[in-house]
């Protein structure tokens, strides 16, 4: 299927400008849409490829920019320094950026407003789980090797109408057992429709083919886990998009 790619600017409630990338399937009209939230480096080729793949399957894809236009960390330390203030203040700093992407997506006439999902990798996994926690009206969210910690001081209200799917590396010591157990308890308290998959022998960043080149402890690509988690994601979309 032919895909049209567009780079777009959009702003959050604080006036910060962001630069996202949209992928529009050929002859798209009232089609389901998927927000893609990047890992800690921000938008890279990996997320762009994922957006293109989704559009080839007939979904409108929007690769979100959480850092801001022109903010593209190239070094690991720089990326963590950019991400840390957002993770430290998820309500005041991160939340407006998440909803800015969602609101921008909704402005496209090709999108079926009732059929929107979000996927995210690493830091992006935290982003999509937060959208579920905020009851943002999404049909589904899928987190890949994402941070699982709840939002501090946010009431554990019921998650309504959003199916939550989490893919976790069973050997991922960056997302420890305390987070895993805490997440399960949070989802139970929120009466959420959730699926949690632990992928054997997979470590952090297991979906990213470039992960081995990071040369960081506990980070690496796992082809089997990457393939299985993606198939499960597409299966969830087929289930929830009606």
From TrEMBL:
<dbReference type="GO" id="GO:0016787">
    <property type="term" value="F:hydrolase activity"/>
</dbReference>
<dbReference type="InterPro" id="IPR050261">
    <property type="entry name" value="FrsA_esterase"/>
</dbReference>
<dbReference type="InterPro" id="IPR029058">
    <property type="entry name" value="AB_hydrolase_fold"/>
</dbReference>
<protein>
    <recommendedName>
        <fullName>Dienelactone hydrolase domain-containing protein</fullName>
    </recommendedName>
</protein>
<feature type="domain" description="Dienelactone hydrolase">
    <location>
        <begin position="18"/>
        <end position="240"/>
    </location>
</feature>
<dbReference type="Pfam" id="PF01738">
    <property type="entry name" value="DLH"/>
</dbReference>
<dbReference type="InterPro" id="IPR002925">
    <property type="entry name" value="Dienelactn_hydro"/>
</dbReference>
